[in-house]
Amino acid sequence: MRLLFLFLILLGSVHHSIADHFTDKKTKTDANLTGHVINKNTGEHIPFFTVSLKGTTLGTATDETGHYFLKNLPVGSYTIRVNGVGYRSAEKQIVLRQGETRELNFEVEEDIIQLETVVISANKNETNRMEAPVVVHVMTPKLFENTNSVCLAQGLSFQPGLRVETNCQNCGFQQVRINGLDGPYTQLLLDGKALFSSLNGVYGIEQIPAGMIERVEVMRGGGSALYGANAIGGTVNIITKEPLNNLFMISHNLIAIGNSAYDNTTSLNASLINGQRNAGLYIFGTSRHRQHYDHDGDHFSEIGELKLTTLGFRSYYKPSSQTKLTLEYHNIQEFRRGGNLFSLPPHETDITEQADHDINGGGVDFSFFSKDYTHKFSLYSSVQHTDRQSYYGAGKDPNAYGKTKDLTAIAGIQYSYNFNHLLFMPAILTAGSEYSYNKLVDKMLGYHRTIDQKVDVYSFFLQNEWKTEQFSFLLGGRLDKNSFIDYIIFSPRINLRYNPLKDISLRVSYSAGFRAPQTYDEDLHVTAVGGEVSLIQSDPNLKTEKSGSYSVSADIYHSFGRVQTNLLIEAYYTKLKHIFVVSPIGYDEEGNKILERRNGSGAKVKGINLEGKIIPHRDVQIQLGISLQQNKYNRPQSWSDDPDTKKTREMLRSPNRYGYFTFFTSPFKKFGISASGTYTGSMYVPHMAGYIEKDKLEKSGDFFDANIKLNYDFTISGNYILQLNCGIQNIFQSYQKDFDRGEFRDAGYIYGPGLPRSWFAGIKLSLN
Question: Which residues, at least 6 apart from 5, have a Cβ–Cβ distance to it below 8 Å?
Fold first, then answer.
């Protein structure tokens, strides 16, 4: 009832705002605007370039010839802004009068290096990346395409400070690490909302197809001041696609995994804009089927079977020039299974981990702002429901079936005010309030485990950013009242940016973070170790984990003639207090191994992220990054219940060095070559007894996972483009060589690249 009440309030507020205060009368002004956008260096017209009236929701995109037309615009003086991926934005002033058609043309410079990319994750407002108070990295659909990434998990590794790892040999449980901290330290957002609950975080990054992603914004370091709990290592904000122009695209990708298993992915995307450009619809759909893969021939899978179907849409309607309503819905159906004897029911196998998900989610956003863009007000609400049927068992256990239901709901309000002058310079004040609700019921009767958890979080955030092109100072904080914590958590942030030159950004930041003592994603995944089940429970006296994060960075852009370069140097230090550690404590009455989450003494995380970009030519792009880090507990921690094993200060599964590179060139107009790769340095990995005699702490070797992709575009009857592509992933077969074998293996003993050497081919048909 509480959720229904909040939702009705939201809809009522939206309706009142539209009807009473912000609705423009649809009068025909016959004030029209037309023109074109061309490349300043080549003189070529640029298709599908965004043209908008600043301070309104009005806008359009250039057509396939690079021209645009806007009709029946409100009269008055406006700033016209044009922007697009790979180009610097441009603005011009114009006065629109009734009955007049004005022409306004633009010449824009190339910005392949993304100097002026607009981001929202840094401060919850649209901000030029160079002027953002913190470093925000942006992943575009082009990166997913060049690296042959069909889902979010496959593309995340191509960012500094990020590493995606597989944590289960059976089901393929993956998580993203930021600055060396494991998955629960990362806050995953969908369009700025924390919809990834503990349950959805288990397999969530593999469930998001690339086709629904407009861009991904990555912000390293503490983000609790903006986004609440768990944003300690960093924040990954997945921005879904919004319709900008009429288009259609269908594609199919086939991957041959180690010559014995196949991964097929088919995607369909389309968008439609009405003639008035005030309403649009984007639909997406993905179907993926991956066969299980057995690398070492023991008849137990190293990569599990996966069947995934995603359907959804995102739409908008602009009732007036200052208002916008956005609706989003998605459905994810996922079945995954790993272990052995796939033709038999799970309880007739030696090991099976199986999960069947039905996820339904959606949201509504309503925003309106004044004509001069001084005031901006937004209301939002999102809901996601997950129904999971599972089996996590070994030894032909008929009681290892489970059922899980999860409901996450968020409702909030945000207001921004632009000061022309506040104390000593222009400023943007942002305030908001948010309520989030999560209800989780997880039942595994065979293991006598029932989790019935309800989390209510009431939040209020306030920040003020004094800002010019050269300097910015942000002071903000957030109050969170989590039902699992007896007191209010205050998370402050301070950010300082100074641009001594236009293309140099120097930043200093401090931010606080926290994690509440509640169920986390790894608790809902049951690992088979040595033919027995391993369960995680929390210490009843578990305290809130807190962090303080510091960072210093220099983001430098420079052009040597037509050669564009970018160098990022970032140093960070994070101090963790009451850190959560998982330690074995023995066995329960059913013989299941019990791991307990308890508070450790603390830890220190420090390191350097380096990233370089070189664009020697418009058709050649090179990007590489490396992270050097040291993550240690203050005191040695136990990782095994074997008294003969030594405690360690090292954070496990966290290499001291890792990196990536991407390369793209187009030697001919329709032919492209992409190369990419990730490097993972050595790390300590726990290896539990079962296949081996005793628990052992292993030190892995280094891995270099290199890929190459070739693509060619064919133009068919004007606007249709047919692309054919092929390539190889993990060219050098840099893959784990010491997997456990058989029924008594440690399924958690897996590290290194997620795929062996694999071949792929794809086809894509698009209408632009």
Answer: none
3-state DSSP assignment of residue 143: helix
Domain count, the chain: 2
Q: Note whether residue 252 is domain-resident.
A: no
Work out the number of other CB atoms within 10 angstroms of the CB of residue 391: 23
At position 274, the amino acid (one-letter code) is N
The structure's pTM equals 0.87
DSSP state of 62: -
Q: How far apart are CA 288 and CA 208, in angstroms?
A: 11
Q: What is the CA radius of gyration of the chain?
A: 26
Q: Compute the distance between CA of residue 528 and CA of residue 352 in angstroms, rounded to an integer.
A: 9
Residue 102, domain CATH: 2.60.40.1120
- The SS3 assignment for 211 reads helix
* Closest among 666, 673, 668 to 86, alpha carbons compared: 666
Same domain, 278 and 196: yes
Residue type, 620: V
Query: Which residue carries 């030190």 as its tokens?
Result: 699
DSSP 651: P
Question: What's the domain range around 662?
Answer: 137-243+262-339+351-767
Report which of 203, 488, 241 is spatially closest to residue 333, judged by C-alpha positions: 203
CA distance 229 to 707: 36
Q: Which of 106, 101, 102 is nearest to 91 (CA)?
A: 106
User: Per residue in 629-667, pLDDT tens?
Assistant: 999 999 998 888 888 899 999 999 999 999 999 999 999
Distance CA 6, CA 389 (A): 30
Query: Rounded to 5 degrees, what are φ and ψ at 5?
Result: -60, -45
For 177-209, write each residue's pLDDT tens digit: 999 888 888 888 888 888 787 777 778 889 899
What confidence tens digit (pLDDT) does each residue in 35-89 have? 999 988 788 888 878 888 887 778 888 887 889 988 888 888 888 988 877 788 8
What residues contact residue 21 under an 8 Å CB cut-off, 6+ apart? none
Task: Please choose, from the candidates 309, 185, 274, the residue with its C-alpha nearest in 3D space to the C-alpha of residue 236.
Answer: 185
Q: Taking 80 as the threshold, does the pLDDT of residue 235 lie above it?
A: yes
Give the separation between CA 356 and CA 388, rounded to whole angstroms: 5
